[in-house]
Design brief:
This protein is an alpha/beta fold. The protein folds into 2 domains: 122 residues, ATPase, nucleotide binding domain (Nucleotidyltransferase, domain 5), CATH 3.30.420.40; 198 residues, Hexokinase, domain 1. The protein has 13 helices and 14 strands. It has a 6-stranded mixed β-sheet, sandwiched between helices. The two termini are 14 Å apart.
Length: 329
Amino acid sequence: MILAGDIGGTKTNLALFTPGAGRPRPVESRHLATADYPSPEAIIADFLRGRHHEVKAACLALAGPVVDGRCRFTNLPWRLSAETLARRFGWQRCRLLNDVEATAHALPVLAAPEFEALRPPAPAPDGNLAIMAPGTGLGMGLAIQLGSEVIPLASEGGHADFAPIDEETVSLWRYIQARRGRVTLESVLSGAGLQRIYQWRRHLGETHPDPKTGQRIEDSDDPPAQISALAIQQQDPVCVRALACFVRCLGAAAGNLALTATTRGGIYLAGGIAPKILPALKRGGFTDAFLDKGRFRNFLTTVPVRVILTESAPVLGAARVALAWETET
């Protein structure tokens, strides 16, 4: 039995798999709230408690950089070691992956209904590709295609500097910089980033928020989700403008990434936010900002953009990596 999982800043998904051909299918799975546990080891122990399956190996996708089998989570005060985990739980093998790296491993086995196309060109079968995953933070990764397989290249590009694209976003940059110092892509393109954009729009005072919806946001356990939902439903003008700005900034950043890696294989939007804001992504602001690269506009018209709809992609990718060991031995 193989354990595969995705331990994120907000949610954790864990599943058990048995070896087999084709796409890995979970025998058991569970969704957990990361904040309910004091450590990643406690999450794993809770999932395995009472189960009589013998887990021989594990592969875990984590929200942070993985170096030499160790991870320091980006938005949680946790550290994790593959060697320590294997010893504690009695596994023969354990591997840790960055969550976006794990998502890339899942791409070859995702089905057509698990994608939503934002840009229509078909992916070039031998082209480079990239993943952007806005959620609790901003994951980012690159990959090359070799035959039918995808070879991920881990990246921490989400922590690169945020570049304003017009006078409006210069104002946003100044607002965040005055309160936080350095402004990164993750400062803007994440759940917390959407909340900052909303607060900035309220600070400008150009559009008066609905008092009732403003209170709903303040009282919510998940203000970014409330902001995006109110924007999609057109229930609050400040939320609408905040989400529109978020979408334009995401499109501009995706276009920059497409140029950086010449991603004729496609840009893939993953994470928890993109599937929930599909109507806003389709309204045109994303595409306009994505293509607005001067002389390279024509090149970018050849780059497909897809939204990954399934939240289980990192778990699926981690399972593929772990199950590959069975083939090797």
